[in-house]
Amino acid sequence: MGKVYSDATAALAGLLKDGMTIMAGGFGLCGVPETLVEAIKASGAKDLTVISNNAGVDGVHLGKLLETRQIRKMISSYVGENKLFAQQYLSGELELEFNPQGTLAERIRAGGAGIPAFFTATGVGTLVSEGKEIREFPDHPRFKGRKYVMETGLWADVSLVHAWKGDTEGNLVYRKTARNFNPMMATAATVTVAEVEHLFRAGEIDPDQIHTPGIFVKRLVHVPTAPKHIENRTVRKRAPAAATGGDV
Hints:
Shape: globular
Number of strands: 12
CATH superfamily of the largest domain: Glutaconate Coenzyme A-transferase
CATH topology of the largest domain: Glutaconate Coenzyme A-transferase
Radius of gyration: 21 Å
Structural class: alpha/beta
Number of domains: 2
Largest sheet: 9 strands, mixed
Helix content: 10-25%
CATH architecture of the largest domain: 3-Layer(aba) Sandwich
Order of helices and strands: EHEHEHEHEHEEEEEHEE
């Protein structure tokens, strides 16, 4: 069977189960695999651990899985745009493993590279280092004199990524800021499933432009009408209207 599936439900068929760990690419609402997440919602899979920088916003993307109480635990770095996320965490309904954003990115990259753990100075002396191994490296010319906390690499059962372009062999190209967590997450799971906006035949994408080689991608689905939300709309204030007319 080829890698291209007819729709998101078919692309996830046989992969989803209760209690599994899922990575979801993107940052805010940029480059998020929203179509694949919709298919997870429809599947009813529950008690999920989701690794994602954040959880979308209320009613959008992963916010929909929070509404249906399908997520048991989030491994994230930011929760500020999702009121339901905050409410569920503060009420004890949702487990949350906080990470500094760079640490989260490196944990994912390490998992994909086969690195079980690494040491970082970020977070030492804060809540994120509690219960973790702390080490010093006094003989190292660059790192001596500081303490470092050990962080483990992350790995998922399934990674969901969103790409701008892809070919039938699973080679992917991400567009601009959508090239955030997607490339590293594509390497850090047993099965990576991609949704792509523009699908090409194998060989039609310039090899020098490929961000994720197809060897990492097992399944993909074409989503030419993928939704594109604006998380926070900022507009310039209008200048006061100029006075018109003369004396009355």
